[in-house]
Amino acid sequence: MIKTHRPTAITLALCAAINAFAFSANVNASDIPTKQLQDVEKNVVAWRRDIHQHPELGNRETRTADIAASHLENLGMQVERNIGYTGVVGILKGDLPGPTVMLRADMDALPVTEKVDLPFASTQTTNYRGVDVGIMHACGHDTHVAMLMGAAEVLAGMKKQLQGTVMFVFQPAEEGAPQGEEGGAELMLKEGIFEQHKPDVAFGLHITSGLNTGKIGYRSGPLMASSDSFEIAIHGTQTHGSTPWNGVDPISAAAQVVTGVNHIISRQIDITKEPAIVSFGKIAGGVRNNIIPEKVEMVGTIRNFDMDNRQQIFDKIKHTATHIAAASGATAEVEINEGYPVTINNPALTEQMLPSLKKVAGEEKVVVMPKITGAEDFSFYALEVPSVFVFLGGTPVGKDATKAPSNHSPYFFADEKALPIGTATLTQLALDYMAANAP
Q1: Do the beta carbons of residue 334 and residue 230 sit within 8 Å?
Q2: Which among 294, 376, 416, 433 is annotated as catalytic?
Q3: pLDDT tens digits, residue range 34-88?
Q4: Domains with residue ranges and CATH for the chain
Q5: Among residues 85, 153, 274, 340, which one is catalytic?
Q6: In what order do the strands lie in the sheet containing 163-171?
Q7: Is 416 among the residues known to form the active site?
Q8: For this structure, is 274 an active site residue?
């Protein structure tokens, strides 16, 4: 049995044996040549293991990008490299006219030391912000790359009957760019990938330990929260703790700011539209018990599911902090750092593609996801074109997915039996959209 907190190498080797990946009988891929899917399965598993064993951080995915780009070139595609540092775009033009469909996979790993006992576990290390740490595909992006490479091979083999164009995007830095750099979907768009090849729609998926293998999770409308951060500096006047009236106490003002900002969501934002969260993560100021400092610094995060509410929250944090500080005789500097927008699945497109998901997984295994307060930079693509982003179950059947190590955990484990389902999902979404919208 695989223990959810630490799978053993012997059990994983048995579960991951190549002959165990015959396409599941409950996966109906009638529109896809089943033999092509079966033929590519061994390669998908091998690619995943190789990439997992050699993870790379954001904007540094040179090896991973070369694997993906070389594969697309060998399939005869037009390929562009080094977009947004290491991004790759491959264009597959079908022999028949039709729309352009974008399929996306993110490539970057995380500064996490792997603790899963796998024969292909990562031993890579790096110095991340002054700390020596391991590098691990703790979010499953290795599986995303492998599955999209598999879908590319299947679709390239169908070029003669392909009704349109498929745009394969292998993206760096979904987890965020290194300090001082731009990156991810936003940078790839900034460098013009949609100017040269504007897709009609975009599809993406993410493996998750929160669902069992075989299941696909979706949600129409807002799926994942926007993720933004804020920094507040309260400036007072230093004085001795025994005579606070001789200065301005920024600690006292900061305490009131925390209370005031926490009231923004509960009292000033219409949360009947969508939920929102503001959390402080750090407060720092002072060095000694009897000295009132001249400055207090605070940082926090903002999560929300409505783009209008998002701007209101930004404005109200600035207003609240500056006015509360002023009431204490202090001043406040507020900086809002915009991160990822809300990930929104286009409702009409979601409804249109729902039969494709059910075709792959079976109707009973396609489930509605709750809103997720995590964020995803696929959201930038979804602001530009109608998009659908889904979740692929990755916890072995028979295991409690609610207790499985979550994405970003050093014990995160992605069941390789999910890989053919993900490959089929990407392929089916592309084929069905093109067939439904071809001239």
Answers
A1: yes
A2: 416
A3: 888 899 999 999 999 999 999 999 999 999 999 999 999 999 999 999 999 999 9
A4: 9-225+342-437 (3.40.630.10), 226-340 (3.30.70.360)
A5: 340
A6: 78-83, 87-93, 163-171, 96-106, 201-212, 387-395, 216-218, 366-368
A7: yes
A8: no
